[in-house]
Amino acid sequence: NKPRSKKRRPTFRRLLKTSGVKLENKLKNRQLKQNVSAKKQRKEQKRLRQAVKGAVAALPPRPLETYCPRPDEEEEEDFLESLPTDMLEDDDLQLMSSMAQRASFITRDLSSCAPVHSGKKRGSEVTKDYEKLPRKMARIEQKEVIHLLPIKDKTGLIPQSIQKPVSQKEEEEEEEEDDEDAAEQEDHMEGLTAEEREQRRAQKIQEKKLRIAALGSAVISDPISNVKRVKELRGMLMEADPSVAVTVRKLVMVSLMEIFKDVAPTYRIRPLTEDEKTTKVKKETQQLREFEEILVSQYKFYLEDLEQIIKDWKQQKKKRRQAVNLQSYGGLAAVAVRCLTELLLALPHFNFHNNIIVLLVPLMNDADRQVSDMCCDAFRKLFVQDKLGAASLATVRVISGLVKSLSYSVRPEVLQTLLSLRIREVKKDIEATKPTKKFMNYQEKKKNLSRMQRKSCWKLKPQRTKKTLNMVFLVYFRILKKAHRSALLPAVLEGLANFAHLINLEFFDDLLNVLQNLIQSGDLSNQESLHCIQTVFTILSGQGDVLNIDPLTFYQHLYRMLPRLHAGASNDDVIIVLRCLDTMLTRRKKQVTLQRAMAFVKRLSTLSLHLLPDASVGILAATRAALHSFPKCDFLLDNEIQGSGFYLPELDDPEHCNAQNTALWELHTLQRHYHPVVRLFAAHLSRGAPSEGSAALNVELSRRAPVELFRDYSLKDMTFNPPVDKPPTKKKVIKSNAPQRWWRKIKFFNLKNDVISRGRKKRIEGLERSERNSYGRICTSSLTPLRSCVGFFLRGLMK
Fold first, then answer.
1. Can you say whether the dihedral through the CA atoms of 656, 659, 660, 661 is positive or negative?
2. Which long-range contacts (CB under 8 A, 24 or more apart) does 722-728 make?
3. In whole angstroms, what is the distance from residue 386 CA to residue 380 CA?
4. What are 450-456's contacts with CB under 8 Å, separation 24+?
5. Residues 347-352, mean pLDDT to the nearest whole number
6. What pLDDT score does 201 carry?
7. What is the pTM of this model?
8. CB-based contacts of 261: which residues, under 8 Å, 6+ apart?
9. Average pLDDT across the chain, whole number
10. Given its phi and psi angles, is residue 759 left (phi above 0), alpha (psi -120 to 50 degrees) or beta?
């Protein structure tokens, strides 16, 4: 008998006090010990077999020892052999012989430790290898799980459930019923007139609208309690009625988009860990967790539905039992893209934002112009409002992969969106996220960041900006190297001109050589050549000052291209010329010779004669800036010749065209221009562009850059800026009205202000003879009070 264990077995009450985790650990330890002991036993048996096999292979098998029978045994054997065998039947004899053959343990060599029927098993395995092939499993039916009450034992609670299979017959019957209902509806609609059909359709749409409004208002009013209504609303995306399917689906997509924009929190929802799921929390916290889980799952399903609509439209596939025809897929896809772009801009912090970026970036290169423009505009807005840089970095990475995968055959608008990246100022973007108000509503709080988030931005924003900039330049340099003759070259050159001041100094020499070769090749258009020149001088005006490079060839290229600008389609190139002139003449005035500056001033004045008014204003403003940077250019305002030779306007070398031997006669012609601002600038320049005095410009014009003036007086809207005055109406002058006569005198005196400005007594021409004597007496007798009075009226006119 085994000795009785002294350890007491735990009672049922003690088991109840023991936690389930402890019992599970005990069970696991017990199973682990059993597995370890079984593993050790198997290892020992394997080692013993290997040792026996080795001994058998080394030593030859010994024969069995000879056995000498006793005399009594020999007599007994002789007696048995002498017995007749016919006492046994044939069947019994065969059975005995077969049993003797199967007694292998007695007849075989004892030194062998192989299994008894090992050879037979190996042969059977060889002949039945086909049994090892995987068999095709039967199709698993869809089962519905029904949860029951759990059972409790020593190990803890055991959940119980029953799986209820859904028969395929019922599904087929439902499909048949739906088809019959649809057929009945079509038959019923065929019997109606066109007006009755339209009324019936309008009635159905109104019912669906009310249903959508009810579900949406319920979710927005109490999101935590009614978040499950989103699933019901999302189910309406599968509307089966062909007469209202397209309209209902569009309404549902837009409604769900607005619901998610309002209900989504201001943070990213992460999945719960196993420890967080097992810990006990408050009831409110549990409700919040359930709400977040349902919200994320429904948001994911909604995005998948939008993606499937776009894929069906791209692939032109129509599913079975689909109530929408192929012609309506375009409208549904446009609404789906619009919803995705709105979510891209409204929820950049929420889940699946990178998935939306991956879905929308290929659509920027779509053949449909409407879809492509929507996506490009959305990403431009995203770049502008992205203050953290995470969304911009993700977008640039996807764009880089798209351009490379398509072998650089993408639309130029895809690369032009990169011009909106905020990679210039880091500090301003972070400071802009500070809250401006002490008390803010929910929408205002979403736009601002907390103090800790701003603190983290100081570390993350520069790193993201650097990575984004590297990806952008990687795309640009790839195109310059491998596809410099593609349609993307203008966008690349424009991007390099925009971000040239951020290029690393190591790439300057190679980049300048590439740009110079592109210009000299003659394959570039005017705009592309201007972008190359702008890129070169943007580099040289920044970190490129340390380089010992003479950009004379680029000055010659720009001087040669100026006459190609005209009032036609190339008027948009004027803004690039103005930027180049600002960089080449104003910022680099110490590296520019006087002969070169005078040649550019003369050619700019000639160019302003045959341009549109907005371009003429910008060119004259650039000429004014050049005169201020090079005061000795006022030689061009005199008729005297400086030096020998004569001016060669057709020569494309600004250093040897003898610009000092000409005059700016174009300014006198421009003083009779139909545009008032052009006349004002021409008169100002013809007097030497003074900063003070009567010929000086007003503050609004003098403090604006040439690019700003070009944009302010733009003619893109086909309107005259400033507007043309209406012709004056002829009215009878009442001589007895003294104040009106006095006002006409003061207004005319404003036009003839030589008496006030220079303090001279000058005769005023143009007044009526009857009023000349009285006006002269006023001017000669009291000139000082008149000045103050006229100044008062002039200030009133200016207001």
1. positive
2. 722/676, 722/677
3. 10
4. 454/430
5. 92
6. 87
7. 0.62
8. 342, 343, 346, 347
9. 76
10. left
What confidence score (pLDDT) does residue 140 get? 46
What Rg value do the Cα atoms of the chain yield, rounded? 47
The predicted structure's pLDDT at residue 277: 86
Domain boundaries, the chain: 545-713
Least confident stretch, 106-110, 328-332, 404-408, 596-600: 106-110
Helix (H) or strand (E) holding 165: strand 156-165
User: CA–CA separation, 533 vs 352, rounded Å?
Assistant: 42
Find all residues with CB under 8 Å of 653, minimum gap 6, and list them.
556, 559
pLDDT at residue 96 in the model: 55
In this model, does residue 229 exceed pLDDT 50? yes
Cα 71 versus chain centre, distance: 108
User: For 427, what's the count of Cα atoms within 13 Å in the CB-facing half-sphere?
Assistant: 0
Please count the residues of the chain. Answer: 799
pLDDT band at 455; cut points 50, 70, 90: low
**Does 54 or 341 have the greater pLDDT score?**
341
User: How far is residue 663's CA from residue 683's CA, in Å, rounded to a whole number?
Assistant: 15
CA-based nearest residue to 605, from 531, 680, 668: 668
Helix 594-607 vs helix 613-629: angle between axes, to the nearest 10 degrees? Answer: 160
Candidate ranges 29-33, 136-140, 452-456, 547-551; pick with highest mean pLDDT: 29-33
Which has the higher per-residue pLDDT, 6 or 461?
461
* Mean pLDDT computed over 480-493: 84
Read off the pLDDT band of 182 (50, 70, 90).
Answer: low
**151 DSSP 8-state letter:** E
* CA dihedral (780, 781, 783, 789) positive or negative: negative
Q: How far apart are CA 606 and CA 666, in angstroms?
A: 6
Distance CA 439, CA 445 (A): 9
Q: What percent of the chain has pLDDT over 90?
A: 29
CA 363 to chain centre: 11
Cβ count near 242 (within 10 Å): 16
For the cut 90, the answer to whether the pLDDT of residue 212 exceeds it is yes
Query: Are the C-beta atoms of residues 696 and 690 closer than 8 Å to each other?
Result: yes
Angle between helices 676-686 and 613-629 (to 10 degrees): 20
CB burial of residue 354 (10 Å; 0-12, 13-18, 19+): middle
Question: Residues 464, 388: contact at Cβ < 8 Å?
Answer: yes
User: 245-263 vs 194-221: helix axis angle to the nearest 10?
Assistant: 10
What is the C-alpha separation between 646 and 658, in angstroms, rounded? 6
pLDDT surpassing 90 at residue 772: no
Question: CB neighbours (10 Å) of residue 448?
Answer: 15
Closest alpha carbon to 232 in 254, 209, 256, 210: 256
Q: How many CB atoms lie within 10 A of CB 496?
A: 24
Q: Residue 378: which of 339, 344, 412 has the closest Cα?
A: 344
DSSP assignment string, 614-681: HHHHHHHHHHHHHHHH-GGGGGGGSSS--SSS---TT---TTSS-GGG---THHHHHTT-SSHHHHHH
C-alpha span between 541 and 202 (Å, rounded): 66
Q: Other CB atoms closer than 10 Å to residue 629's CB: what's the count?
A: 16
Q: Is the pLDDT of residue 307 over 90?
A: yes
Residue with tokens 């040289």: 540
pLDDT at residue 621, as a whole number:
94
Give the pLDDT score at 68.
Answer: 53
